[in-house]
Amino acid sequence: MKIFITDKQKAELEHLHDTSRDKRVCDRIKAVLLASEGWSSAMIAQALRLHETTVNQHINDYVNTRKLKPENGGSASRLCAEKTALLISYLSQHLFHHTHDIVAYVEHRWAIRFGIPGMNKWLHRHGFSYKKPAGVPHKFSEKNQKHFIEYYENLKKTAGNEPILFIDAVHPTQATKLSYGWIRKGHKKSVKTTGSRIRLNILGALI
Question: What's the number of domains the chain is made of?
Answer without folding.
Answer: 3
